[in-house]
Known about the structure:
Helix content of chain A is 25%, strand content 20%.
Amino acid sequence: MSAVRAPMGELHARVARAWEALASVEDPEIPALSVVDLGVIRYVTPQADGSLEVGLSPTYTGCPATEVIQNLAEQALAHADVGRFGVKRVLAPAWTSDWITPEGRRKLLQYGIVPPDRSSFSLRDLRRGDRPLACPRCRSTETECVSEFGSTPCKALHRCRACLEPFEYFKCI
Amino acid sequence: MSAAAVSAGDEQLLRYVLRLGDLSLVLGQRLGEWVGHSPALEEDLGLANIALDLIGQARFFLGYAGEIEGRGRGEDEIAFLREHSEYCNPTLAEQPNGDFGQTIVRQVLIDAFQLELYEGLISSADERLAAVAAKAVKETRYHLRYSSGWLVRLGDGTAESHTRVQAALQRLWPYTTELFAADAVDEAMTERGVAPSLAALEKSWSSRIGAVLAEATLERPADRPYSWYGKQGQHSEHLGYMLTEMQYLQRTYPGARW
């Protein structure tokens, strides 16, 4: 490898190590998911001064987990030999549940949380017209929404009328 | 006037951003009063989650207001250390919770307003406001879905629930005039492409509210010419009591951190 290309290779390696470190950070509210699965890590980009900038988006504007996620991400990066870095909050474009990775959706379902059932959210869809969700335990579609809001801002509370178990649904947003 | 003082144009932007932030802050604080007191655990969580979204929006707006103001005040100082007459929320937001039905009526009226407002602000000439609106509009849709769902259940529910929400609607309806009463600040913001026109918002708000009221079998109260002036800092008596509680900690222990 030439002397000119070596630093570039090193930069790529630092970026890769950063992603790897971030993939080990669990969402504090849904530990089944990493923050990378959740899609809140927007980018890891080398800056002109040689540091790495990590873009982080909140899922909901008031989500109290955002600060915890930032602290956990900074700790993981500090232990991962990625050199100097900074975490920047990114608001636009707004985070959407569409950015949960296929791997993340699989993990959610396995954990007992139904992943968002549509790939995009209709702008005017305010009335209940959604097709019934399948219970993550018994797969019955005899389910109902108990509350639009659950234990965290991103989830709604549902109930299965077949197996009588409550379950959570990760809302489309 | 000091050298750091903002220009006249930014003074209007500052005022406008404070109004956006105070609407979310004051309504969020009111909903927070329900925590531990709601009729059921699900509603406790629902109202607390909506409050959380609103306070999150307020943080973005008030933090931005601090930057526009340029006097080094952050979101917390603006939220907790201003005087009564410096708050710019429309008077409807500060009205007491009353019973659950009255809280739901207030919520439907404001959710529908914020939904139209944020949909308009997505294309604002001000990039910061556009970014917050694009985020907040998605949350606001869920707020309205929750509140209008409850309004229909209560309005089209028992004789008792119907009577109570109809009475709450009569009581709160007069405050809605202020939401759409454009003053020099609103007109300047619309002129600059920062804010959607309030006249246009009123039209779509009115038809959306009309549909929800019809489904809830509630009678739409007559409009009255009288308006309130909370946006200009003249509030009802209720805001002072709310602020006394909200500001207690920051005033008693200045600079407290945890």
